[in-house]
């Protein structure tokens, strides 16, 4: 029988519709295509085809905006928001508006056009999270940036417009509604119980084990109790921290192993699907928060959001998280 499950943080309800589909093979999906011969501005040697780099990793040296790099960060050529200008918040009758001021950057994760992130070395994945960390720290110096989103779109169904593996960073002048819901829900729990709900969640998922995918001394990865999407996966540090950009070198190193392992298992179980992942961190100018815990959400793109979901806010997920976690656990080290 289908179940209704409530997310304990945001209060969002989802429908676990077990009669629709259950196993990875039940989903109709289009695997992400491999490399093509089309021109790619992200490939090594084409540095002049991107805006001038903001930062780059060149272990063996080299000139900026030239070859011999392992990772580059460049402004998005077609940005959603622009750094220049003032916010100029104004009221327009009952409406509010402001200028589209912010930041939009692209992290080119490797010079190799043929590799997916899951194919890359652990060091390459670690470099990506170092870049996220350093760019958040830099963007926070701009007081207009209230929230900084770090995310990856992989594959057409996830919104990627270029094949070459890359991630993005967007600095926003407001805190997004989805993030504010998490902050508010976490605060309500903390005010009532004087504990962090995320820390409680880590303990319960480890003790229960049915939704646990993998754990290390530093991290826990599990299928959330009320997942919106099949095979949705959350990654949380074991020890409380509200801001991703405060992560230690040891934490970043272990996170690289965890994320690479998870992405390789997802590729194996779901045959290289499109996916998104997003780092949920605290607002840029907030101090350490006792009630919020930074985390990463990984969303394989296996189902579509249709009229019912848009109308009601209910997500229909055909795969119970306990079964999704078991498939990913059983995939082993790949």
Structural description of this entry:
The protein has a single domain (3-83, 94-330), classed as HIT-like (HIT family, subunit A). Helix content is 25%, strand content 21%. The protein contains six helices and 15 strands. It starts with a strand and ends with a helix.
Key features of this structure:
single chain, 334 residues, alpha+beta, HIT family, subunit A, ten-stranded antiparallel β-sheet, three-stranded mixed β-sheet, 6 helices, 15 strands, globular
Summarize the SSE layout with pairings.
Blueprint: E1 3-6, E2 13-16, E3 55-57, E4 71-75, E5 90-92, E6 95-97, E7 103-108, H1 122-139, E8 147-154, E9 166-172, H2 177-193, H3 197-208, E10 212-215, E11 219-222, E12 233-237, H4 249-270, E13 275-280, E14 295-300, H5 307-312, E15 315-317, H6 321-330
Parallel strand pairs: 2-15
Antiparallel strand pairs: 1-2, 3-4, 4-7, 5-6, 7-9, 8-9, 8-13, 10-11, 11-12, 12-14, 13-14
Helix pairs in contact: 1-4
Structural class: alpha+beta
Total of DSSP H or I helical runs spanning 4+ residues: 6
Q: How big a fraction of the residues is strand? A: 15-25%
Number of strands: 15
Oligomer: single chain
Which architecture does the CATH hierarchy give at level 2? 2-Layer Sandwich
CATH-derived topology: HIT family, subunit A
| Domain unit count | 1
Largest beta sheet: strand ordering:
3-4-7-9-8-13-14-12-11-10
